[in-house]
Specification:
mainly alpha; 6 helices; 123 residues
Length: 123
């Protein structure tokens, strides 16, 4: 396996990751009922790819407030520890199934950091 190197690699991760999220009844309602992300997946993937390109490769271009967006969702339906754990498990397993290396590990570490900060901030 190779490391994450391109936007296309990130898009592959996002598509496979969302396949898992949408198939998991313990969490999919956030994407199908609480929000309408499932109706705009390709556009959402592009936003996520820009976020992760900036995060991993310092490319720039992501200007949204990721925490504010997720806080709005949390206020509609509370994220529980189980939701964060499920999200991280699917995220990490998706990366591990397709990539290994510095950026793969960095992506998983940053996702854990974001989930941890959200759990603290959204209490």
């Amino acid at each position: 396996m190779t490391d994450i190197e391109t936007r296309e690699d990130i898009l592959l991760i996002m598509r496979k990751f969302y396949d898992k999220l949408l198939a998991d009844d313990s969490i999919n309602f956030f994407f199908t009922k609480i929000t309408t992300v499932d109706q705009h997946l390709e556009a959402h993937f592009e936003i996520l790819a820009t976020f992760w390109e900036q995060s991993l490769f310092l490319k720039g271009g992501y200007y949204n407030n990721m925490f504010s967006i997720h806080k709005d969702v949390h206020e509609k339906q509370t994220f529980t520890k189980a939701h964060y754990d499920t999200w991280l498990q699917h995220f990490n397993s998706t990366i591990d199934e397709h990539f290994e290396g510095k950026y793969a590990e960095q992506m998983k570490t940053q996702a854990l950091s974001m989930a941890t900060i959200m759990q603290i901030k959204f209490q």
